[in-house]
Write a structure and sequence with these properties.
Elements: H1 16-30, H2 35-42, H3 46-54, H4 62-71, H5 76-102, E1 105-110, H6 121-128, H7 136-149, H8 151-154, E2 161-167, H9 168-173, H10 178-192, E3 197-202, E4 215-220, E5 226-231, E6 236-239, H11 242-256, H12 262-281
Parallel strand pairs: 1-2, 2-3
Antiparallel strand pairs: 1-4, 4-5, 5-6
Length: 285
């Protein structure tokens, strides 16, 4: 995860998503319909409508339009849906951090980069500084937030059981600052030695995979519930739907099968560090 609980609102008071869900249930009950009857008349599955009314899913933009026509409510539901969608985008990363703080187990892959929980301060600063839209103050704030999150791995209490997949390309690209890259490789080796951390390197020989298009974080809460966070270069989204999260978990497991063992990955990390430090010690010609 580089840088949302989708039910969480922005600011105080009930979230737009929760208001939308309550309005769906209220309108159906006012019409004297069961979920089965509503499903028959609107051609939506009963289970799908149930999740919408419970706030488990927000659904597509087609749903409120169909239901507005069915109930004769103008654009009421469509407008509430838009507010909930906007709220979800605004709060996605903050909500994810809330879920991460609660989670007991996490599995993660970030395409082409060192995962955030394993980054050194200098690596994080170099990466986040590449966002030209962010001010220096914003970059510094985000770096410090990232470092604070790492207490779940490198601290003493409330430790997170963590499994990270790192593509070999992330190990071969390095940083311009030689010492900063040495520090980052040493941090990875340190993490690989922790009992609650498992690191797997996905080698170039594994070939292409659809997960290269972004990052995926899988979180398991104390209740046993699985929540996913998917992120591209410009956007991210929390996946709370159980079926969608399960599909992502299966994809992650298949990708992990292409990776090296933790022992083999640690050997490669040490080799990359040795090559890096050896090259730096060679005389310049």
């Amino acid at each position: 995860m580089n840088d949302s609980n989708s039910n969480a609102g922005v600011g105080s008071g009930p979230s737009a998503r929760r208001i939308y869900a309550k309005e769906l249930a209220k309108l159906r009950e006012r019409a004297g319909l069961t979920l089965v009857q509503l499903g028959e008349q609107t051609r939506y599955e009963q289970s799908y409508l149930h999740r919408l009314e419970n706030g488990e899913r927000l659904g597509s933009s087609d749903v409120p339009k169909v239901l507005d026509r069915f109930y004769g409510t103008g654009d009421l539901l469509a407008d509430l849906w838009k507010l909930a969608k906007r709220e979800k985008k605004q709060g996605r990363y903050e909500g994810f951090m809330d879920v991460e703080a609660e989670a007991r187990n996490m599995q993660e892959f970030v395409a082409g980069l060192i995962p955030g929980l394993l980054q050194t301060e200098r690596y994080a600063a170099s990466l986040l500084s590449s966002d030209l839209s962010a001010s220096l103050a914003e970059v510094n704030r985000r770096v410090q937030e990232r470092m604070a999150r790492q207490a779940r791995l490198f601290g003493k209490t409330n430790l997170l059981d963590y499994r990270g997949l790192i593509h070999e390309s992330a190990l071969r690209s390095g940083l311009k600052d030689h010492d900063a890259w040495t520090e980052q490789l040493e941090r990875l080796i340190e993490a690989a030695g922790l009992r609650h951390v498992s690191l797997h390197v996905v080698p170039f020989s594994a070939g292409p995979h659809f997960m290269f298009g972004g990052s995926l974080s899988m979180l398991w809460l104390p209740s046993g519930r699985n929540i996913a966070y998917v992120e591209g270069s410009l956007s991210g989204d929390v996946i709370e739907d159980a079926e969608e999260a399960e599909q992502l978990r299966l994809a992650y497991d298949q990708f992990r099968d292409l990776a090296m063992t933790p022992e083999g990955s640690l050997d490669l990390l040490r080799t990359v560090l040795e090559e890096h430090t050896s090259c730096s010690s060679l005389p310049r010609t």
